[in-house]
Amino acid sequence: MRILVIYNPTAGRRRLGRLRQFVRCLEAAGAAVTVAATAHAGHGRILSRAAWQAGTVTHIVAAGGDGTISEVADGLSGSDLTMGVLPLGTANVLAHELGIPFAPADNARALLSGASRTIWPGQLQTGTQTCLFMQMASAGFDAQVVHHVSLRGKRLLGRTAYAVQAIREAGRYDFPPLHVTIDGEACRTFGVVVSKGRFYGGRHVLAPEATPLRRGFSVTLLDAPGTGQMARAGLGLLRDRPDQVPGMRRVRASHIRLIAPACAPVQHDGDASGHLPLVISDAPFPLRIAV
Prior knowledge:
alpha+beta; Rossmann fold; Tumour Suppressor Smad4; 2 domains; 6-stranded antiparallel β-sheet; 20 strands; phospholipid metabolism; Putative diacylglycerol kinase family protein
């Protein structure tokens, strides 16, 4: 096996130790391993596509958080390579979703075993980019939080950094109405989360019916604005009871278009992704993930 590991160096020293253990386990089993660090946003996409097109590897592993994973997956769109995931990020939602091992030795054994699952990512198009997302994309308050949470905060506090930033944003976000078209039907909402899988922000259940193993999405809509509504939604997530939150509903969809306002922030897989307008559809190709 010839394995390229694409690593996000912002993960920190403690997680670097887990990466080294993972590489040692692969090399002990006879695999040839190369590690490449990302240098800027979007670099994971460039590295994975270059390695795939050069034909120099049999597997590519994304070592980092959900944002790094989506970048590497984007570079592999259309390939027949198996992608590995070593979860080193803040939330690691896709790893929880697919049951990917967190322990480096167990993860290496899973990759070497050849076991995999085929998933259907989503594709996001804004005015500045077209890219894949693996778990979810959103516009509104939670995207506002992602746009402003600091890397230093995530390093120090982990997922708690998002909760702290949400408190800060609650006093200054004005909850503009979002104009969305879902499979051709127009509606108005105050927040949209488009999910490929069940989980949100770690292992909190937002869309229990969603699965990345088939085409389509679960779309969560907020029908009421304000910090009180967001507090109720947050409490429902913590209790894994999204169906019991008043003013929050979900629908199945295959094509979502968000038109206005143009200032509304967008995020996918925990990374800031510009602003509206936004179009979401299924990716053109499935992707094989080692599990």
